[in-house]
Amino acid sequence: MKIVILDGYTANPGDLSWDGLKEYGELIVYPRTKKEDVVSRAKDAEIVLTNKVVLDAEVLIQLPKLKYIGVLATGYNVVDIKKAKELGILVTNIPAYSTDSVAQATFALILNMTNRVAHYANKNRLGRWSDNDDFCYWDTPLRELAGKTLGIVGLGSIGWKVAHLALDFGMDVFAYTSKNAADLPDGIQKTTLEGLFSVSDILTLHCPLTEETYELINKNTLAKMKDGTILINTGRGPLVNEADVAEALQTGKLLYYGADVMCQEPPSKDNPLLKQKNAFITPHIAWATEEARTRLIDTCVENVKSFVEGQPINVVNR
Ligand SMILES: NC(=O)c1ccc[n+]([C@@H]2O[C@H](COP(=O)([O-])OP(=O)(O)OC[C@H]3O[C@@H](n4cnc5c(N)ncnc54)[C@H](O)[C@@H]3O)[C@@H](O)[C@H]2O)c1
Ligand SMILES: O=C(O)[C@H](O)CO
């Protein structure tokens, strides 16, 4: 059995090991693969593993030996899962490996906006505090989270964890979710999408990228939000229309945009959000703690083992 990893570098830049996979076949690990090389690299493989290399219908039909795609991520929007199913290719993902890390990163973005730690540390390096007349100074709005309303789109593994952290901060928590209101823990209130837009001081996106959620945040939905809403996106870039978000940041409709993901990754240098003073963008690293990447690789090996043994787990296209 030939196993090909198309873009192994980000999950394992050298500090972890793919050796667990060697038990299940001949393993070839490419650090990264350009679009034009995908078919030639994957064509003899029964098992292909990808994090962000796109396997769309056009690619899949050129891979007749392929039996299994293991997505090295929770979000599996890079694979055309319907076409894969039609072709008899099983697709799995890695659920919940980075829940704690992504929830932490979500609050890192939020707390950066309320407390601006890097801003003050940088100014103080330049002598701003030393030159001050009083024992303290601030030149950004300082905000307390307690009593503010957090709106969550998608109450899965990450949304759930974020909700609990928010409750611990004393926030009021609302969620747009298909779960029954009665099944939600105390303190998390179910609402409609419209309801969520109108109550949230901070709105955070934790749903997958699908046809339904593509550009969920756009000119029209932004208009339904409170003036000065904070928007957080650690889900996927295309959950928002970036041009509309950039405009909302300029008009003040959005106070801040905090994102770990962008529509194009890496983004082009002229993406307006990168230069926007009230946008704080991290380079898709919420998942990338050593702890989470270790769990990712462990689950990847479990997924491949289960597939090879005929009892596949974490299948997303049954
Ligand atoms: N930035 C990162 O490093 C990083 C890391 C992990 C995951 N992610 C992204 O976060 C997403 C969520 O991860 P998770 O582990 O919580 O996944 P999950 O599958 O546990 O939860 C997703 C939730 O979204 C809900 N959902 C689906 N469609 C929806 C819709 N239209 N409206 C509202 N809710 C909807 C699902 O029912 C589910 O409860 C992933 O799909 C991925 O895109 C990003
Ligand atoms: O979905 C995920 O797991 C992260 O975005 C990393 O790819």
Main sheet characteristics: 7 strands, parallel
Hetero groups: nicotinamide-adenine-dinucleotide, (2R)-2,3-dihydroxypropanoic acid
C-alpha termini separation: 22 Å
CATH architecture of the largest domain: 3-Layer(aba) Sandwich
Q: Order of strands in the sheet with the most strands?
A: 8-7-6-9-10-11-12
Structural class: alpha/beta
What is the CATH domain class of the largest domain? Alpha Beta
CATH homologous superfamily caption of the largest domain: NAD(P)-binding Rossmann-like Domain
The run of helices and strands is EEHEHEHEHHEHEEHEHEHEHEH
Percent range for helical residues? 25-40%
| Annotated CATH topology of the largest domain | Rossmann fold
Low-pLDDT runs of 5+ residues are none
Strand percentage lies at 15-25%
Individual helix count: 11
Compact overview of the structure:
By secondary structure, the protein is an alpha/beta fold.
For this entry, give a set of tags.
alpha/beta; Rossmann fold; 2 domains; seven-stranded parallel β-sheet; five-stranded parallel β-sheet; 12 strands; globular; binds nicotinamide-adenine-dinucleotide; binds (2R)-2,3-dihydroxypropanoic acid; hydroxypyruvate reductase (NADH) activity; Glycerate dehydrogenase
Please explain how this structure is put together.
The protein is of the alpha/beta class and 318 residues long. The chain folds into two domains: 2-97 and 290-309, NAD(P)-binding Rossmann-like Domain (Rossmann fold, 3-Layer(aba) Sandwich), CATH 3.40.50.720; 98-281, NAD(P)-binding Rossmann-like Domain (Rossmann fold), CATH 3.40.50. It contains eleven helices and twelve strands. It has a seven-stranded parallel β-sheet with strand order 8-7-6-9-10-11-12, sandwiched between helices. Helix 4 (99-115) packs across helix 6 (157-168). The model has no long low-confidence stretch (mean pLDDT 98). Nicotinamide-adenine-dinucleotide binds at residues 74-75, 96, 98-99, 102, 153-159, 176-178, 206-210, 212-213, 234-236, 260-261, 284, 286-287. Keywords: NAD, Oxidoreductase.
